[in-house]
Every structure is written in C-alpha cells, then in structure tokens.
C-alpha cells in the first residue's frame, strides 16, 4: 500500500470519528459522512466528504478515480450525517456534466476561480443527494 493511501485512510478514519462525536461542530459545517451500500458486496461504506447544503439538496464533488461514488449510480439510497443529524436520501451521480461540476466546485471553494474549477472538473464527478 502506498504512503498516500495510508495517509488517506488515517485522515478519513480521524475525520469519521470526529464527525460522529459531540465536537463534530469543529468540522461539520463543511464535512459530512456519507454511507453507501456496495453494489456487489452489499457491505456498507462510510466516507467523509466535503459538501454544500442547499435546502433539502446536498452537493458533493468527488475525484473520478475514487470508487465509493460508483455505488450511487441509478439513484441509490444513501445515509448521511450532516451537522450532527442522521438523514437519508437518494443520490444522483452526474459524470459528464463538466459545467455543473465546475459550478459546484466554485460553490464549495469560494476562492476557486472559474478557470481553475473548469480544469478540476475534468477529473471530478458531481453527486446530488435529495434528503428526506
């Protein structure tokens, strides 16, 4: 396992513990936990992600080379922990809409320029979650 993979697992584990604990407010304004069910294994996977909340819609952008979001194709049900609250919803994955990805990146990262967002959108996917 590469050093980067080890560091990512450690960071994700630390963030998951923090987001599930009483002091979640330190990071939960911008980070949440998403739990997806593996399509092949049926196993639950929980991943910390950055998000943007707009009413009852949560927007997440992930790198295309990550694997967790692939379980969400076709409007899969998800569970999320947002700002200390557990919610459920249905996810929609947008793989090829680079303009929507760039717009979401600028909303998630206000200091990101349109040019930089367009560059980053090339290897990102957009996930929209409608929570109940």
Please describe what this structure looks like.
It is a single chain. The chain is built from three helices and seven strands. By secondary structure, it is of the alpha+beta class. The protein has one domain (3-131): Electron Transport, Fmn-binding Protein, Chain A (Pnp Oxidase, Chain A, Roll). Strands 2-1-5-6-7-4-3 form a seven-stranded antiparallel β-sheet, covered by helices on one side. The longest helix is centred in the N-terminal third of the chain and has 17 residues, at 3-19. It is globular, with a radius of gyration of 14 Å. It starts with a helix and ends with a strand.
Summarize the structure.
The chain has helices spanning about 5-20, 100-110, 115-120; strands at about 30-35, 45-50, 50-55, 55-65, 75-80, 85-95, 125-130. It is an alpha+beta fold.
Overall strand count: 7
Name of the CATH homologous superfamily: Electron Transport, Fmn-binding Protein, Chain A
Classify the beta-strand content into a percent band: 35-45%
The low-confidence runs, each spanning 5 or more residues with pLDDT under 50, are none
**Quick one: biggest sheet?**
7 strands, antiparallel
Fraction in helix: 25-40%
Quote the CATH topology. Answer: Pnp Oxidase, Chain A
Overall number of domains: 1
Question: What is the residue-averaged pLDDT?
Answer: 87
Please outline the helices and strands.
Elements: H1 3-19, E1 31-37, E2 44-50, E3 52-54, E4 57-63, E5 77-82, E6 85-94, H2 98-108, H3 114-121, E7 124-131
């Amino acid at each position: 396992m590469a050093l980067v993979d080890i560091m990512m697992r450690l960071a994700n584990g630390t963030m998951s513990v923090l987001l599930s604990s009483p002091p979640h407010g330190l990071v939960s304004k911008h980070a949440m936990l998403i739990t997806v069910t593996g399509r092949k294994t049926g196993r639950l996977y929980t991943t910390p992600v950055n998000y943007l909340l707009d009413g009852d819609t949560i927007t997440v952008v992930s790198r295309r080379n990550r694997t967790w979001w692939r379980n969400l194709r076709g409007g899969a049900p998800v569970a999320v922990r947002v700002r200390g609250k557990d919610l459920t919803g249905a996810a929609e994955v947008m793989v090829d809409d680079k303009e929507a990805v760039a717009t979401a990146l600028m909303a998630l990262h206000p200091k990101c320029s349109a040019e930089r967002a367009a560059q980053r959108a090339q290897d990102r996917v957009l996930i929209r979650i409608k929570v109940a």
